[in-house]
Amino acid sequence: MRLVRWTLFSLFLLQLSITAEAQCSICTKTAQQMGEKPAKALNSGIIYLAATPLALMGIIGYRWWKSNRDMF
User: How much is the pTM?
Assistant: First the structure.
């Protein structure tokens, strides 16, 4: 049951990240010049590049916490 809750929560967070705006001022200016469709692709790429390292750090941190919590 706990795994199901975490899975649903993760899918909910993933859904939120799809609508996020992740452009700096320079990227926004470049995206405005390219048009709407390439701008959406640029934004999705920025989110993908940011989410991958954060997910890896989260997985590593969770496994480290799980292996060390029994020591105390």
Answer: 0.48
User: What does the pLDDT look like over 10-58, one tens digit per residue?
Assistant: 888 777 665 556 567 777 788 778 888 888 888 888 888 888 888 999 9
Pair 56, 41: CB distance under 8 Å: no
Q: Where are the domains of the chain?
A: 2-68
* Beta-carbon-side half-sphere exposure of residue 64 (alpha carbons within 13 Å): 6
What is the C-alpha separation between 65 and 59, in angstroms, rounded?
10
